[in-house]
Amino acid sequence: MSALPHTLPHFRRMRALDLDFIAAQEASAYELPWTRGNFRDALDAGYDCWLMLVGSQIIGHAIVLFAASEAHLLNLTVAPDWQRRGYGRILLQHMINEAKPHKSELMLLEVRPSNRAALQLYSAFGFDQIGLRRNYYPVRGGGHEDAWVLSLVLVDPLAGKR
To answer: Which residues carry out catalysis?
Structure first.
């Protein structure tokens, strides 16, 4: 299987009109998804909320919070029917590119240690584990799972380049 998708996607900003669809897509991808209200709050707060589309079909979404010199990747989701085709890489690269105009020096995120596909993706981009948040994620049926905090340096501190 090729690591590159056969159909190149395009991107646009998320709008309030997209929220019902995005919440449903999120629910199809995760056992404990973000809610429509979570996405509404992200839009209202002015976070960078992006959609990835093939043709007119929304196949993924991502949300980043920019603060100071950091980009915090809060959500990155590819619809289940579109996974394992290279679209996660494209969406993540788009979000990294979006950090440049914000002069972000570092991208941070949390990920479940059990999410092996996500860990492989982030590792391929050079993210490193820098911390652990104990009992961060709820688990269906009760309890919690830790989160690994990952970071990616976007600016070489010695060269000042991205």
So the answer is: 110, 122
